[in-house]
Every structure is written in C-alpha cells, then in structure tokens.
Amino acid sequence: MSTDATAPPTPADHAVEAPSAVAIRTQGLTKTYGALRAVDDLSLEVPTGSVFGIVGPNGAGKTTTFAILAGLVTPTSGQAMVAGFDPSRRPYEVRARLGYMPDALGVYDGLQVDEYLRFFLGAYRVPRRTWAGATDGLLELVGLSHKRSAMVTTLSRGMKQRLSLARALVHDPEVLILDEPASGLDPRARVELRQLINDLHDLGKTIVISSHVLADLEEVCSHLAIMEMGRLLAQGSPTQILDGLGGGRRVVIRFLDGSTEEHAVADLEAQRNLVRDLVVQGRDVIECTPVGGLEDLFLRITEGRVQ
User: Fold this and answer.
1) Would the pTM of this model clear 0.90, i.e. be above it?
2) Angle between helix 157-168 and 187-202 (nearest 10)
C-alpha cells in the first residue's frame, strides 16, 4: 500500500486559515539517525503557486524532508508547516491538503487501474457519488483513459508513474510533492511528465518536485533549492541564485547576421542593460542566452561547500 495513505483525512474541526503566500515553510528542520544527520537545520520557503524544485544527489536528504512534510516521519528538531498546519501535530489536516507521490511506485498489482483509484478515493473519504466522475477525470488528466480496465501489473513503468500521480490527486490537494517522478522513465515519458506538471501548475497547484537529474527540473521550475548531505546550500529563483553567487554570469548574444558574442554581466539588470545598449548602437539582437544551465549552477554552488 502507498505510504501516504496510512491514515485517511478526517473533516477538519478547526477553521481553515486564509490562503498564505507560502505553501510550505520549514525552520531549522533536522532529522538524525544516530550519528547521521539526514536533514541538517533546513529552512525552506515554498511560495504558493510555484513549481519548486529540490536539486541534490542521492543522499542529499530530499526524501527524508518529504517524508517529514507528509507526516510520515517525525523530525528530531525544528518545525515544518504545510498549508498552515504542522504535519507532526495535525497530520489529518495536512494529508487532506497534500498529495504525496513517493519515489517507490506504491501500486497494487492485483487491481485494475480504475479499481486502484476507487480504492484511494474511498481511503480519502471522497463522497462515493463523485467516484465515477473523479476516476474519469483523473485518468484523462494523466493519459490513462484507455487503460482503465487494464491490470496494474501490465502497465509500463511510465504508466505506473502516471497512475501513482493520479492517486496523489484523488482528494484534489492544494500542494503536491513528487519525489523523483522521472526516475527510470524513457525520454518520451519524461517529456510527457513535464507537460503534465505544467498542466497541474495551470490548475493552481503548488508543486514540489525533487530530482538528481537537473534537466528534469530546468524547464518546469520557477524556484529551486539546492541540497547536499542534508544541508541547504541555496534557494530562490534560478536568477536570484545566480545573482547571489557573485562573480556574475555570462551570456551569448546572437545577431541577425548570424554572428555571436559572449559577454560577462554582473546580474540580470546588467544583462538587460547590455541588450538595450547593443540595440541603441544599431545592432540587430535576436537572442540573449545565459551560458550554462542548472547543471552549471549546481556545480558552482556545491564546489567546495560540502565535503
């Protein structure tokens, strides 16, 4: 059974707080296992409505952080808040608002696809009268309508990933946590997953997604956190992180005649000024592209920071 359904949500007996600009906040979050500090004094802020990527190698503490946010693991110290609730103290309220897709597939091979979703609709106490419509909508969203009567065991890995995501959406959560959702997928399935994440973002979901494959996050994330060995090294938009590094950035300017030039700029404002000045000079600028991407950013931040 999938780990995020260990306890179904119950109707909240407390007033729901007004929408906040921050969907997830952690302060000094720490989890130790003996001498191992899996999460080390982690303070994060995930803006409401963002697609927030957590980047880090295996063992960086991403999965442990997610398990704490989902109320599956109790932190050693510090605090986490999800949609205004502490998962350690108010797990039912958090689970009613959070959809968690773990790195393990968490599917039942002995069920048909639609039976699998109906099981979790019942586990989350979604009114039975809505099950048919909810099942149809979820299968259409993740592109599995044609597999509704198939046994889960017959699905490809990519289809199982999409079914696992549909399961995380059965109760229409405000916040989605996706732990390494692209792991093991072929290139086509990765592209389809990125499009699905964009579709969910358009529906108003706050999405937190982890990966150690930087290309999986580069095209979808509005904000990033970079972790290594349980520690937070940087967070913010890619532009904010780059500007905070010092030493500036490099950009390639491409002109209408096919020529290119590479320039060093201090920050985003300097980049804009460069393009403006070139246009004022009569240069036909058609493109300005930063040199390097998330991979370059990650290497610059982690170099020498954590041994």
Assistant:
1) no
2) 20
